[in-house]
Structures are given as structure tokens and as C-alpha cells.
Amino acid sequence: MNYRPLGRTGLRVSALCFGTMTFGGDGMYKVIGETTQAEADRLIATCLDEGINFFDTADTYSSGGSEQMLGKALGARRPEVVVATKVRGRVGPGPNDVGLSRGHILDSIDRSLRRLRTDYIDLYQIHGYDALSPWEETLRALDDLVRAGKVRYIGASNLAAWHLMKALGISAHDRLARFETLQSYYSLAGRDLERELCPLLESEQVGLLIWSPLAGGFLSGKFSRTHKGPEGARRASFHFPPVDETRGYVVLDALAAVAHEHAVSVARVALAWLLHQRVTTSVIIGARDDAQLRDNLAAPTLQLSAAQLERLNQASALPIEYPGWMIETQARDRLHALSPEARFAKVT
After folding, report:
1. pTM assigned to the model
2. Band of the pLDDT at 182, cuts 50, 70, 90?
3. Pairing of strands 12-14, 3-5
4. DSSP for 57-80?
5. Are residues 270 and 344 both part of a single domain?
6. Which of 3, 29, 61, 129 is catalytic?
């Protein structure tokens, strides 16, 4: 396992992060997985033995059951790892049991700490944008948690580029703890992040944590043009994240070809592609059984050639959009080491 810096912090986290959304299987998360405590103990032990030091959960997963199971599975090894959890989602029927208000954040942190059996959270992430809570209120509350020692670093998830940049600006202006990471969806079947967020993350040195790297199972190797997945597959009843299947099957064809060349699974190639992207900090994997987990754990050792990366890039490329094409056109005169005559010819 290799380890990468977590944003601008001094922490180093494993290139793979183990996500625990499948733990418990309560409510809406039942369709995602129903991992029992005994299974969770075994999966976590395997991760630790293989060098994973980064684990992700949220207070909404299985109504807090995921946090509770993760805390129990880590046990005495809690100090060895980086634990990330989230706040924002609905955790009760009341009008204030959701969002990023100061009240909800301060109530939620103590519940998460109890369930995780710890006195601090390494990375406390907002689970999304809350239009009703001012950024100043949210960031001040999170900063107070850092100062109190309950949280060491803060991160965000599922934000638009302007959300993130506005929050970073307020943190800088008011000298508050800033978002060191962004947890977002990114996969060969969904590269939307590259339009605005990836350049922002690199510019501001914000780490990228990737959720659903296999596009909700679409890139697992169980789907093809002629086979719509096994009976009971998650995507059969839970089409999330959404995938443009017309483009998606082109990606699967390219993945299958590269997987055949390496004699590995399609899923392993899809994960390896993400690990080859320079903006990636850690890829969040989930597994229901040991075989799936061990296959995913091998992804960091898979080296894709330049030709294979180009094949996957071309198959999954985003359709060109404005202002991207204009920015690229205008950049030629500034960034390419060409003669003035050549530059003029290329631009026009």
C-alpha cells in the first residue's frame, strides 16, 4: 500500500480508503448492503493487515449503525488509523435534525464520537451543501470543534466548485479551519468533476477522496452490452449514481480489453485508472466479501501503460463544452513553446 498526503495536512493516508456504507443495512441502505458485525470485523481486519489506514463512514449510514459497527471493529487499533465521518443528512424527524446549522453540527459530533468509541474524529466532513445555513455559521462551528480537540481536520463532500471556493475564501478571510478534502463521485463512467472541480482542487491543494469509483457497480465487470448484471444487483433497483449507458458501454469495452491484457478484473482496472490521476488522494472502496475486497486491494499495484491510459481516456472523454474549448484555444498562444508564426496559425 502506498500513502499520500491528505490535502495540505501532515497526515498521510492509504491510496485506498475503506468505506462502510454497507455496514448494517438499515432503511434506505438495505439495498446497498447488509454487512453484519462479524463480517465487518473480518473485512476491517483484512484492510488493516493489508496496510489500509483510512476508513470512511457517515452518521446517516444505517441510522448511525455504520459508525457504531466501525468503532467496534477497530477496537484497540483505533489510534493506528484515520477515521472520517460526515454531518448534514437527516438523522431524525425534527425540523433541526438535518443541515449544517451550528446546533445540528454540535449535536451530531457528540453522537458520532459515542458511536465510534473515540474522543476525536480525524476528518469531519460536511455531507453536502445546505442552502439554509450561512457558510460563516457552518465554518465557525467546525472551527470550534477543531479548537476543542473533537475534530482534527475538516472536509467537504458533494459541493459545486463555487461552493468550495466560497468556503475556502471565508476560511482564509476569517482565519478558520478550512476544508482540506473534497469527497466526490468520480469514475470512468462519470468524469464531470474534471470540468471545474479538478482544476480547483489542484490550485488550492485540496485532497480528492473518491466515492463510488465503480459507478455503483456499473464498472464492476458484471455488466456488459448483452448482460445487465446479476439478479439482485444493486443497480437493478438503485440506479445510482446515474450513468449514460450509451457512453458507458464504450467505456466497458475499453476496460475489458485492458483487463484482458493484464489478466485482471475490470473493476481492478477501473480503480487503477483513478489512482493514476494526479488529483486523486484516496479511492473509497466497499466490499461485501473477502474475494471482492482482496481484488480491490490489488488495484494500487496495477500499472497501466501510457497507451492503455490513452485508450481509457478516449473512451470516457467528456463531451467538449464552453468555456472549456475557448480556454484551451486561447491557452495555446501562452502555454505552447511555439514560434509566433506557428502560434498564430494554430489559434486561427
Report:
1. 0.93
2. very high
3. antiparallel
4. --TTGGGGHHHHHHHHHHGGGGGG
5. no
6. 61
Q: Domain containing 221: what range? A: 3-317
Integer Cα distance of 56 and 85 in angstroms: 6
Residue 61 is a catalytic residue: yes
> How far apart are the C-alpha atoms of 226 and 324, rounded to whole Å?
35
CA–CA distance, 315 with 311 (Å, rounded to integer): 6
Distance CA(148)–CA(35), nearest Å, equals: 34
The phi, psi pair for 17, rounded to 5°, reads: -115, 135
Amino acid, single-letter form, for residue 45: A
56, 284 contact by CB (below 8 A): yes
Let me know whether 348 and 275 are in one domain: no
pLDDT at 170 over 50: yes
The CATH number linked to 249 is 3.20.20.100
* Pure H helices in the chain: 37-49, 65-74, 102-116, 135-148, 161-174, 193-204, 234-237, 245-262, 266-275, 290-297, 306-316, 324-335, 340-347
